[in-house]
Amino acid sequence: MEALNSILTAIAKLGGEHSASTALQELRVATVNVISEVAKNFKEERKVVTESSCEQEKCLQQWGEDEGVKSQLEISYFEGAGRGAVARQDMRIGDIAMEIPLSIVISENLVHASQMHSILGEVEGMSAETMLLLWSMKEKHNPDSKFKLYFDTLPEKFKTGLSFGIEAIMSLDGTLLLEEIVQAKEHLRAQYDELFPALCNDHPDVFPPELYTWEQFLWACELWYSNSMKIMFNDGKLRTCLVPIAGFLNHSSCPHIVHYGKVDFTTNSIKFPLSRPCNAGEQCFLGYGNFSSSHLLTFYGFLPQLDNYYDVIPLDIDVESNEGFADTGPTSDWTSHMIRGTWFSKNLGIFRYGLPPPLLDHMRRSRNPFSQTMNLTPENLEIELEILRDLCSMFQDMTDALGDGQLDDRETTSWDTKLALDFKYLQRRIFSSIVASCQAGCELVESELQRYRL
Q: Is the pTM here over 0.85, yes or no?
């Protein structure tokens, strides 16, 4: 989608200076048609929950419009996804779905104008993001805040992986996500302990203790992790910001809005143009970034509805080094590898099997460091069988370590345990696809070997 839209951008730049305008127009029409065809394969169907009230969100939208927000979107609640944005009318590629004036964007400039900036500026290692986090903890309770309506729409408790309870954490046993969440929580706790209660003791008027508890700190962390955007300002600096109203847009693996995050100096606003069409009544999606499902669960609190190409599992392959191995090429420097669900691969034939070529090459060279080709010889085929059987055994063990998925009860569990079990199911699915591909690969190789044995 990004590549196709880059073609449209190039056509737009050439349109005013190139004489072959007819050819450019034909190319543009063809590109738009391809985008529409690609988008048809990535439909995300979610029902609008009509009984859920959006009064606070509508008040925020009206406030935004009074402040200069222009939007073709309406806020609604979606089953299983919470709040989202729906197109009010049909929109084409390039249309601006939403335009947010810089005057209502929450950025570090607000901290600079606050009483706490002079204090925090003296704290060694204090980042702009941490200053904003501490500012928002206090501003949330300010009845006279310009952003009161925005803070009123935020949940009292964010449901991200950082808020997982003990049962949910234990449900992740056997996954790398268990360690990731524990380490993230430990990091945040250490950061909190460095700041408090010292700031409250030294400056109780600026940092009231009742507003700066651990629970409030975690809430603010989840707010900034799950709602902030990186914005490029006109001075060339990239800043982390909260963008009211735009934060209602949900993520998709194939979003309508891909290119955003840069201030338009002519309008002093942030624009959200469409990279693919969005019809009236359809949910309009934003791309949060190229994140794995584990990252989205930990810091945003959801798993993508569509297959996520960035669900990559790191592997540390323990193989004995061979003499001469260091000179066999760039893969010799690799100490870890990555693998994803084999349903993403279109090459399932011999020497590929839907598995990453760097991983396969690494394992081949660990067995035969001087081999430079992958010809269909009995020797190479025997090595392929060894590799596939090893991988099959490895990933079957990983699958078994996740436990029996049939025992998972998602109907009677809490939100966090359900989310943990859904993630575990995803891990099983990835591992199972690799096992199935290895088994199919073994059959292919054995069939080819049989020809040499006859």
A: yes
